[in-house]
Amino acid sequence: MFRNVAELVELAEKEQIKIAEVMIRQEIEVSGRSREEIVAQMDRHLEVMERAVERGLQGVVSRSGLTGGDAMRMQRYIEAGRFLSGETILDAVSKAMATNEVNASMGVICATPTAGSAGVVPGTLFAVKEKLQPTRIEMIEFLFTAGAFGYVVANNASISGAAGGCQAEVGSAAGMAAAALVELAGGTPSQAAEAMAIALKNMLGLVCDPVAGLVEVPCVKRNAMGAANAMIAADMALAGVKSRIPCDEVIEAMYRIGAAMPVALKETAQGGLAATPAGRAIAARIFGAAATK
Amino acid sequence: MKYKSVFDIIGPVMVGPSSSHTAGAARIGLVARKLFGRKPEWAHISFYGSFAETYRGHGTDVAIVAGLLGFDTFDDRLPNALEIARIEGLDVSFFTEEAIPHHPNTARLRIGDDKGKLELVGVSIGGGKIEIIELNGFDLKLSGHHPALLIMHNDRYGTIGAVASTLAKHAINIGHMEVSRKEKGKEALMTIEVDQPLSDDLIQELEQLPNIIQVTKLVD
């Protein structure tokens, strides 16, 4: 059993196994289910993610009409070839948005770790697929690795926007994705932990301020940036860059910041972008004047 | 450890848009439905904290009603739950409460029909996970993720022992157990989370024990 990132990395290094394998072994022990059952369930979750990305890239629209179509727009832009950053990173951005657009349209997604942050992990995985050519089992392992880091955050801090702000949702997702990207690319367990630390550090303090209380604005674009952040953090860790603050202490800092964050900025739709004139106008349009008190 | 399984993190598979406000809410409704044992005819649902502020935006109201109708988080009928409730004769009303709850995502459900009623308080703690913290006035802690038994019984000596022995006979291990009562010698509630699936035979056997009023199985 691991309780924090340090123990997770130590277990993987001592046993000379991947972080994904540490997570699978723990799941077998905790659930009493067989390895085959557990891997098969993760495979089904991977399928849900694939379907959501495909659907989102074809273009969906949410009930409110606030989001949808941007994932498709980004794909067209990539195809036109005149982008500034890079193809892989923009693909991750587009696929992260695709998932969240499907989520906003009340479609079926897999929460990773939450629905509001469901785009980051699959977005990055499917974006590096072409470059790294992972096997199906390696893609499944990617999700176990992401899950192992998310498990630590969930138990030591929070993965709920209402309890910890967006840093707890998209921040956690970015950290999870960064760590899993490192492992998929052949990095070490400690490099995976560095990637998680670097990604999460850059999400600290991010508030949860959804316009009209909907998981749409700014959630879709925060997933886009969470995916971009994860990609860069993974590259930095693979290059040998280290976080001066250990990963577990970054997680602890995230928890404390979340606890100190005003309630108006924790998924109550009372502050931040939700409280801007444009944000209030959108809420009034959707729910009527009563909802904008 | 609040989160035990990797599928609490990479999961659930669910209808959007919010794991805490949609999937968690559906699960609270579903637990209430299972405890009640049948479709209720009416439901009074009170929202607290963030639930009260944003329930319409996240479809929290729709999701709780979906749960009461017996739909799981990934059921594609979920978005249409309010309409389905109307057609099936489940009369729902929603209230927003000013009181500040211990956790921001809290809902109190009062449901019933002409034969009985039930009241529970559920909390959505994030990522689709829930806890049931109150049932018919009893405080309890129930994650909704392990096979669990709720046993209403008379507060008499030997009752807890008899239940534990029966579970042991069926090779069922108790992971978490709580006993609460409102008053000495009156009605009491056992909450038992176990590691193995619970058969119908076992439930019947428990119901035959002395001083047992009602046995409800939650989550297989």
TrEMBL record, chain A:
Superkingdom of origin: Bacteria
Cofactors, names only: [4Fe-4S] cluster
Pathway of action: Carbohydrate biosynthesis; gluconeogenesis
Residues covered by the Serine dehydratase-like alpha subunit domain: 15-274
UniProt-recorded Gene Ontology molecular function terms: L-serine ammonia-lyase activity
Keyword terms of this UniProt record: 4Fe-4S, Gluconeogenesis, Iron, Iron-sulfur, Lyase, Metal-binding
Catalytic activity reported: L-serine = pyruvate + NH4(+)
Enzyme nomenclature, EC number: 4.3.1.17
Family: Belongs to the iron-sulfur dependent L-serine dehydratase family.
Name under which the protein is recorded: L-serine dehydratase
Species of provenance: Geobacillus thermodenitrificans
From TrEMBL, chain B:
Record-linked PROSITE patterns: ACT
Catalytic activity: L-serine = pyruvate + NH4(+)
One protein family per Pfam: ACT
Entry keywords, A to Z: 4Fe-4S, Gluconeogenesis, Iron, Iron-sulfur, Lyase, Metal-binding
Pathway per the UniProt entry: Carbohydrate biosynthesis; gluconeogenesis
InterPro entries: ACT-like_dom_sf, ACT_dom, ASB_dom_sf, Fe-S_L-Ser, Fe-S_L-Ser_bsu, Ser_deHydtase_bsu
BP terms from Gene Ontology: gluconeogenesis
Keyword Cell inner membrane included in the entry's annotation: no
Signal peptide feature range: none
Domain ACT: 148-220
Gene Ontology MF annotations: 4 iron, 4 sulfur cluster binding; L-serine ammonia-lyase activity; metal ion binding
Cofactor (UniProt): [4Fe-4S] cluster
Entry similarity comment: Belongs to the iron-sulfur dependent L-serine dehydratase family.
NCBIfam families in the cross-refs: sda_beta
Name the record gives this protein: L-serine deaminase
